[in-house]
Amino acid sequence: LQTCRWHEFANRTQLEQAARRFILEIAERAIATHGAFRIALAGGNTPRYVYQSLRTAETDWSAWHIYFGDERCLPAKSPDRNSRMAQTMWLDYVNIPRQQIHPIPGELGPETAAASYAQLIADIDEFDLVLLGLGEDGHTASLFPGAAWEKGTALPTVIPIHDSPKPPLQRVSLSPARLSHATCVMYLVSGENKREAVIKWRAGIDIPASRITPAGGVDIFSSIC
Ligand code: 6PG
């Protein structure tokens, strides 16, 4: 079962500032304890300005290792790629060694991208931090309600998706179990259109976002209620 800590903010700016602080605190702790910080990023609009605000952070960028929780199967340079968004909003401005940035190769198509990413992350034990968003329909990463993954019993760690209800159709997503394999999991939730999904989530109704169940619980930063 998922343990939730809700952090509510009056507006998106406050949410963004608190999220920036939270990310940097976890980074410092991880770097102090094991010399590296492994973070998996989310796509969508809510993290966009959090990423931008990280450009000016004072941290040891050489210890950061960047991964992604999901990706859209589009050309590598497409502005709609989650990796491209993170790159242009943030990563292009900081000194993280190139070889420590690991986009999901969505341009190769769902099957090949998923297989290759599963192999890449097989070497990492747990993420220090997984960032996630929430969709109107309760989805998180590219785990949509009613899709095949919900019924799958032996899911791969990285799931190829061919029928996403949110464009594009083809995507790749880490599985709930793999996203749960993290010291911290943080959701960034903003926008009136998420209200209904948040109400369900808080009421304990099963939505994809409630399937991520790390041992340490999840922190939900929301500027809706
Ligand atoms: C994506 C995301 C997705 C996103 C939510 C919320 O590829 O679109 O990974 O899971 O986080 O849809 O997005 P917003 O923050 O834009 O509402």
UniProtKB/TrEMBL annotation:
Boundaries of every Glucosamine/galactosamine-6-phosphate isomerase domain copy: 11-216
One Gene Ontology biological process: carbohydrate metabolic process
Pathway: Carbohydrate degradation; pentose phosphate pathway; D-ribulose 5-phosphate from D-glucose 6-phosphate (oxidative stage): step 2/3
Keyword match tRNA processing: no
Keyword annotations from UniProtKB, A to Z: Hydrolase
GO MF annotations, alphabetized: 6-phosphogluconolactonase activity
Reaction(s) the record says it catalyses: 6-phospho-D-glucono-1,5-lactone + H2O = 6-phospho-D-gluconate + H(+)
InterPro entries recorded: 6-phosphogluconolactonase_DevB (IPR005900), 6PGL (IPR039104), Glc/Gal-6P_isomerase (IPR006148), NagB/RpiA_transferase-like (IPR037171)
Enzyme Commission no: 3.1.1.31
Superkingdom to which the source organism belongs: Bacteria
Role noted for this protein: Hydrolysis of 6-phosphogluconolactone to 6-phosphogluconate.
Homology family: Belongs to the glucosamine/galactosamine-6-phosphate isomerase family. 6-phosphogluconolactonase subfamily.
Name assigned to this protein: 6-phosphogluconolactonase
Organism encoding this protein: Sideroxydans lithotrophicus (strain ES-1)
